[in-house]
Structure formats: C-alpha cells, structure tokens
Design brief:
Blueprint: E1 24-28, H1 29-32, E2 40-43, E3 51-57, H2 63-67, E4 72-76, H3 77-83, E5 97-101, E6 108-111
Parallel strand pairs: 1-3
Antiparallel strand pairs: 1-4, 2-3, 2-5, 5-6
Length: 118
C-alpha cells in the first residue's frame, strides 16, 4: 500500500516541530493510523545514512501484522513524537536498547534487546 493512501490520525499539516531533525524511523500503522500510543520501541544500528535506528510500535502487533510491510512506513522521528510525546526523553539513548511502556503511564522501562532477524 502506498503510504499516501493511508488515513493518518494526525494530518501532515498539523505535525509540529518538537525535536531537532534526527533522521528517519519505522513505525507501525497501529500508531500513525489507529492512534495507539507507543508501547514498545527499540533503537538498532541504522540501516543507512538517514536512519535514526528507531523502531516504534504499539506493542500489540501480532507477528503476522508485523511481517506485512504494508503495516509500516518510514517517518521522521519528530512525526512519531507528535503521536506520543512520552518518547521524547528517550530519543538520545544508545543503539542496542529497547523500552516498553509502563502500563497506565507515560514512562518506559528498559527491556532486554535482541536485534530482529533480517
């Protein structure tokens, strides 16, 4: 699916600059289309020059959902910050880290990180 055909929860003209440009990230449609908060995020070694290494998901994606490339898109990290301000304090962490949201809060706790299989 072409990302331009998706019905985003926040229209592009309403995205505000919240953090300095830091590159792109992958995010699940559960966040950008369905409006869920980030429930799990990890930062891996970037794939390319303009990749921040960040990957954001709601945390309730099934493996089947996650395996479907149509359910993901690349965004500027700032865009995902507009969907969930709570991620902002964690954006400068080192590569190879993961965080899960503490239920019912805007805080995250570090989790064990295993880079996904390519």
């Amino acid at each position: 699916m072409d990302p331009r055909d998706k019905a985003f929860r926040i229209p592009g003209d309403q995205i505000k600059r919240l953090v300095p440009a830091m590159g792109g990230c992958y995010a699940s449609d559960r966040i950008t289309v369905d409006g869920m908060k980030v429930g799990y995020m990890y930062r891996e070694t970037p794939d390319e020059r303009f990749d921040s290494g960040w990957r954001f998901m709601s945390g309730d994606e099934s493996q089947e959902y996650a395996d479907n490339a149509d359910n993901w898109a690349i965004y500027e990290v700032n865009t995902i910050c507009n969907y969930d301000f709570a991620i902002i304090p964690y954006l400068d962490v080192a590569y190879g880290t993961a965080y899960g949201r503490i239920p019912g809060t805007d805080r995250f706790r570090a989790e064990e990180f295993e880079p996904p299989d390519e």
